[in-house]
DNA sequence: AAATGACCAAATAATTGTATTTGGTCAAAC
DNA sequence: GTTTGACCAAATACAATTATTTGGTCATTT
């Protein structure tokens, strides 16, 4: 009883079809949240446009919030993946990484809204996202990466690690936020903005002189490793958000060993939209 | 029987006493707006704490808005004056200027709120302030100043004027905004922040190599001139806000010739809180 | 004149009640 | 087993009232 193309009835049942449907739903959700904002984007709406019944959506996610968490996570994975892909083709410097990050960020309204805490788009989610430290939702391993760069002589030694982070976060934030509220005459194309950002960010924290000979390779490697780790972490979280059969299962703390106790976060609801340090 | 047997003397009648009282009122207003925000700060409150009757306040300003405009303008003058004063003691470079600006900005919550459009403090004034281009309320003559620096070889030649402005505004904005929302571990003392900001800003737009020999003096002079102009402009506006006898008189467009028609702004109410380009 | 504070229209907040929408469930249909 | 959509409690929006506060004025006092 394999090939039963019975009547039109139960198309998606295997995992692959399930996933496909999940993505279709997220696509719609993404469109709607950008057009109307989180508050005005209803499950009914999404279901209708996605061509499924409301109940079906709850076959994937337990709550509305979880759905949007998945959406944000997917976007994050896509962005980081793209950065990872493109950074492999360049010199793999910090400046390179910043430029790619900016470039990918600028073309993803949802990511921008999420990073900046745009309440116009995130609605009542704004609080949740920002509560967890706003600008501090650095990708996993970022500080480790900076540590490596410092050791390789690629970072200014007259700044503490915290200062490196603050400087980079400030530049990133500023360049993402300011241009939008500038008068007409100052509008710049996104690609140019990304360059300026990368420029400003790297100049702010990068070591002055030329990098110690022979370290270029190691720097590039560190960058790649960081990008890889960031993508993997994001991917793991995403999978938990839409992979499993039962919507509730995942998110169980300490699945694949390795964790221990995250010194950082205050437990909180395991299913919240927290995307920060892990 | 009247309540307080306050022999309502008539102390202030000469200009000097008037001004003194105006400042006392503004002091109170400043305290209150920082403590409760613009929306919840009432004229009654201010009057009571300042030890005057409500009517007296209207002897100085025609409306509540005008009072706060005066407050903001006064703060601005104080800040710019301080910058002017201190910049004369240093090398007078762009970096120097940025550092001082940051330093003075960081110790003035009202200025920060005003610049960043903090709705928590500015309440319904937020809109008005931001409407006029937010980060674009550059002091008078800023672009001219940048032009001079560029001509003197102190600015990167591979950026357009607009790009210089965007970069500086972004850095300033970012460094003023981000540190406040960073997790505990990343807190930095204001003075250090000012340094980092100055560093990042100048590195972002300043020319790479050493400045052409002999230009240092001219650069310093340009910086001084710019600071002077900024202070003067701010002062002129302030005087109009609390100097004259009759609250209404000033603000009349085109007082001291020179104006004509400002190509920029859409007229609007002459008494609004606009502090931008003039 | 200079300053006051009782006074008032208008804005703002608090209250109450009703209508509509929406997240989430689940028995029935496939 | 999978999907659906009618169903419901809870949330949200809307409307109508009433209560309170507040910006601004001005006759009176000093």
What would a concise description of this structure say?
Chain A is mainly α. Chain A is built from 12 helices and no strands.
Explain what the structure shows:
Chain A has 278 residues and is mainly α. The first copy, chain A, has a single domain, classed as Tetracycline Repressor, domain 2 (Orthogonal Bundle), CATH 1.10.357. Chain A contains 12 helices and no strands. The N and C termini of chain A lie far apart (46 Å). At the A-B interface, helix 10 and helix 11 of A face helix 10 and helix 11 of B. The structure holds a DNA duplex (30 and 30 nucleotides).
Determine Rg of chain A (CA atoms, Å): 21 Å
Biggest interface, chains and residues, is:
A-B, 35 and 35 residues
CATH class of chain A: Mainly Alpha
Summarize model confidence as the mean pLDDT of chain A.
Answer: 84
Termini separation of chain A? 46 Å
Biased composition (Polar residues) (chains A, B): 253-262, 269-278
Keywords (chains A, B): DNA-binding, Transcription, Transcription regulation
Protein name (chains A, B): Transcriptional regulator, TetR family
GO molecular function, one term (chains A, B): transcription cis-regulatory region binding
């Amino acid at each position: 009883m394999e090939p039963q193309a019975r009547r039109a009835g139960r198309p998606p049942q295997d995992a692959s079809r399930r996933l496909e449907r999940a993505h279709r739903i997220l696509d719609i959700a993404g469109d709607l949240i950008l057009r109307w904002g989180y508050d005005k984007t209803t499950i009914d709406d999404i279901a209708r446009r996605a061509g499924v019944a409301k109940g079906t959506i709850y076959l994937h996610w337990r709550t509305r919030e979880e759905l949007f968490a998945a959406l944000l996570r997917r976007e994050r994975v896509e962005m980081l993946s793209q950065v990872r892909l493109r950074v492999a083709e360049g010199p793999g410097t910090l400046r390179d990484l910043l430029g790619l990050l900016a470039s990918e960020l600028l073309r993803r309204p949802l990511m921008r809204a999420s990073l900046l805490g745009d309440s116009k788009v995130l609605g009542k989610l704004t609080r949740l996202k920002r509560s967890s430290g706003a600008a501090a939702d650095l990708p996993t391993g970022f500080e480790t990466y900076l540590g490596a760069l410092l050791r390789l002589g690629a970072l200014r030694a007259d700044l503490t690690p915290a200062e490196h982070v603050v400087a980079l976060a400030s530049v990133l934030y500023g360049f993402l936020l300011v241009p939008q509220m500038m008068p007409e005459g100052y509008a710049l194309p996104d690609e140019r903005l990304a360059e300026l950002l990368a420029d400003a960010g790297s100049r702010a924290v990068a070591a002055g002189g030329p990098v110690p000979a022979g370290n270029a390779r190691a720097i590039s490697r560190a960058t790649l490793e960081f990008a890889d780790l960031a993508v993997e972490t994001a991917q793991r979280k995403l999978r938990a958000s839409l992979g499993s059969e039962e919507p509730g299962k995942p998110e169980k703390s300490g699945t694949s060993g390795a964790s221990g106790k995250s010194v950082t976060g205050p437990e909180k609801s395991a299913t919240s939209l927290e995307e920060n340090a892990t």
